[in-house]
Amino acid sequence: MRGAGCSINDLWDRNLDPKVARTRLRPIARGALTPFQAFTWTGVQLLAGLGILLQFPPICLYYGIPSLALVATYPLAKRVTYYPQFVLGLTFSWGAMMGFPALGVDLLAPDAGAIRAAAALLYTSNIAWTVLYDMIYAHMDIRDDAKAGIKSIALKHEAETKKVLTGLAVVQIGLLAGAGIATGAGPAFFIGSCGGAALTLGYMIKKVNLKSVKNCWWWFVNGCWITGGTISLGLGADYLIQYLADDSKPENTEAKAEDL
């Protein structure tokens, strides 16, 4: 689906990409693919995504299909607002919502209040994170975007980018911690995931050279893996600790003995 989103983006931007140095050699922009060929390939990608979606519980269809509206309209945002990264965040972060119905949890059920809160907090945390790293990405094209009339958060807040990045990091980590509280996460999550995210994001924001296209690209590609890896490790450690603690409870031990 990420690939389909990129294809749709390139279709919408086929007349803008030639005006930006970094994107002028994209397949449609340079004429290597016709719009019809790109449209056909997008259809193949969407069908592949549907095939995967059908492997999950049927309820996932009701949550997954509406996200296509976001995938299709994101590229238009840069034409009307300086905050297309926010729309990108809405799109890229949808997986945070999909995880719950994939486990058979209906977020719209009357008794799903706490889980619904956790999903909303996780989703909005990911939106803040997407805006953060895509703001760094936008700095690579800031001069060409201004000439081409392409709007971005980097153009709007060029003079105070690092302050904005810091604010986004605080929001992301705060919302992530809120999701942990809503789900009863333990210390490993708050120390590993939230604390680790604070350290890695803080280091990235301090070190990234927004005037260097090469440096912005490095942090955009690697920064999300570093922070994402840290968050994942914290989540994994917390899950393992809680699993082992639950497994060692007397009632669970007795139940296993009876099964044997």
UniProtKB/TrEMBL annotation:
List, alphabetically, the Pfam families matched.
UbiA
Q: Any idea where this protein resides?
A: Membrane
Return the InterPro entries for the record: Prenyltransferase, UbiA_prenyltransferase, UbiA_prenylTrfase_CS, UbiA_sf
Enumerate the GO terms in the molecular function aspect: 4-hydroxybenzoate polyprenyltransferase activity
Main localization, broad class: membrane
Q: Which residues cross the membrane?
A: 44-65, 86-108, 114-133, 164-182, 188-205, 217-241
Tell me how this protein sits in the membrane: Multi-pass membrane protein
Q: Which cofactor does it need?
A: Mg(2+)
Q: In which pathway does it act?
A: Secondary metabolite biosynthesis; terpenoid biosynthesis
Q: Does the keyword NAD apply?
A: no
Q: Which GO terms describe its cellular component?
A: mitochondrial inner membrane
Which biological processes are named by the entry's GO terms? terpenoid biosynthetic process; ubiquinone biosynthetic process
Keywords of this entry: Glycoprotein, Membrane, Transferase, Transmembrane, Transmembrane helix
Q: Which family does it belong to?
A: Belongs to the UbiA prenyltransferase family.
Q: What is this protein called?
A: Diterpenoid pyrone biosynthesis cluster protein C
Name the source organism: Xylaria multiplex
